[in-house]
Design goal:
mainly alpha, Rna Polymerase Sigma Factor, Chain: A, 6 helices
């Protein structure tokens, strides 16, 4: 199943679709988070990100990559609170 189909399934409460998205995208999200967060915070922020995906999947209306939407999700935006403890800036995330 492609990402958009999975996200649509998550929007109607399909937890298997969420698991599939998590298995597909969590390593990518975690890899980027490791560049900017303490190792002890990465797992929590990945989980927060996918909780936000579960809660907000109905807000995805297509027109963009699902991985970018996941990265910009409300849980993902909470990353900045974790990084504000003197960690690196976000400029290194995409390099």
């Amino acid at each position: 199943m492609d990402d958009e189909t999975l996200l649509a399934a998550v929007a109607v409460g399909d937890d298997r679709a969420l698991r599939a998205l998590f298995e597909r995208h969590a390593p990518w999200v975690a890899g980027r988070l490791r560049r900017v967060l303490a190792a002890s915070a990465v797992e929590d922020v990945v989980q927060e990100t996918f909780i936000a995906v579960w809660r907000g999947a109905g807000g995805y209306h297509g027109g963009g990559a699902v991985d970018a939407w996941i990265w910009a999700s409300p849980g993902g935006r909470r990353r900045s609170g974790h990084a504000s403890t003197g960690g690196p800036t976000w400029s290194g995330v995409w390099s």
